[in-house]
Every structure is written in structure tokens, then in C-alpha cells.
Amino acid sequence: MTKNWNYRSACNTIAFDNGHGDDAMATDALDELDFGTLSTLDVLGTKIELFTAGDGPPLLFLHGIDGIEGSAPLLRELAGAFTVHAPSHPGFGTSDQPRNLNRVDDLGYFYLDLMDVLGLDRPVIVGSSFGGWVAAEIATKAPERVATLILASPFGLRTADRREQHVADIFMLSRQELNIRLNRQEPALSSLPEDRLRRTMRNDEALSRYGWTPYMHNPKLADRLHRVTCPTLIAWGEEDAIIGPAYRQAYAAALPKADVAVIEAAGHRLHADRPEALSAHIAAFAGR
Hints:
single chain, alpha/beta, nine-stranded mixed sheet
């Protein structure tokens, strides 16, 4: 089992123009998010790393398998139209990992508590990849709490049937093959500074905790998606090498009232491949 890294959360609020002492080490690991503020939010005793940027209607962004740092291009775009709240999921980044949070079903309830702490009343909720699954769980539990829901390359439904795998098993792929499928340029782990390596390993460990078995889905989610009553957009990358066509069709069938957008020249990581295009879809859909 992967080692569980233990390290201190960032202090209460860190503006990115700080450059001294321990705060500098905390911000160096997230230097791509230099357009906002990193803080620590206490959610009923669980300390969560929270990135905030922009000005406008509230938007809760739930990151994918590569953490909030991997979503920086999209967050920068969204901050031009929204007040963006982007937490690191429990166990990711520097966020605490409570023992009682070990299913994405649990995260759905956790984020309702986080929304209470932040005072978010019916925000736009955007979830990418793994975060799309989390966003769908929130919307099934308290549909009245979501103004608009955008799911970009979401996981969450059954990934295979008896004869065919519809979603690549990211835990079985080599890191090199995974990076190719994600269109991700990642330096060798051995070359990473310690703070960045810890984030990477911690993100990987948390993802496996939530998604190892059953593999990247909640068997009950499909039967709950009818509870989603808010305007919903599902966005897919035309060149997604992780999620196949049959899986996309299953999501459209489970959310028959949702709009579907296919973004050209983009893979699974829409937030990094085509951040401008995805942001434009989000702004237009949320503004309807």
C-alpha cells in the first residue's frame, strides 16, 4: 500500500506574492496558481486546502485526477467571470484525509458541509474527470443546492460490462502510458522537488483510495441521477483516450435532460487541453 504522507497544511491564508520562510515552500508547489489566494478551510474539523480567485457569481470547482494544480489553465479562465472556489479534495494536495471519508459517496455529503461553511447558496458547480463524479454525487443528494451543473469528462458510472471495458484502467497503466493517454507532459518523479513529489504521491494515493474498487464508479449513481433537476451540461473531449463512446452514451441516457458538448482537439483533460473553449461553454451555459 502506498505510504501515507504526513505533512503540515498551509497556514490560514497565503497570498501568492509571499516569498519568505515556510509560506514560500507551500506556494512553490503551486506556482502555476499565482493569480489567486491559497488558504486553509476548516470543515467540521477537517482542514482543506482552498484556492480562490476572481470576482463574480460563485463557482465551486472540483478538480480531477491531477489536483487543483493541473486545473490551473481552466481556473485562470473561469476567474475572469466567476468567484472561483477550488478545494483540494480530502487526501489530495495538503488537505486532511479523515478515516471516515473513503468513498466518493462520502465526498458528496462532505462538500455540502463545505458549501455551508463557505456560505455558498446554489453556486455553479463544475467538476472535471474525478471531480465530475464528485459533482454528480452532490447534485443527487441535494439538487436544490446547485444552480447549474457542468460535468467535464466525468467518471462515476459503471466502467465495464461483462464483455467490454468502456473506461481505461488508469491504475493498471504505466505512468508513461497514462501520461500519453492524458496528453500530459510530466517530468520524471525523480527530478521533482520534495514538496511537488509529496503532492503527486498524495494525489495518486487519494485517487486509489476513492476509486480502486469498485473501479472509478458508484454502482448506485446511475439510479440516482434522475434526482438532478438543475440545468446540466456534460462536456467531452473529442479525443478522450480514457473514456469510450459507450460510457458517454450511458451518461447521456442517465441524464436525459442534460445538454452535451463535444470539444474538438481535446482529450480527457479538457481543463488543460482546451481551457478557453471549456470556460466559454461554462460561462454561456451558466448565463442562460
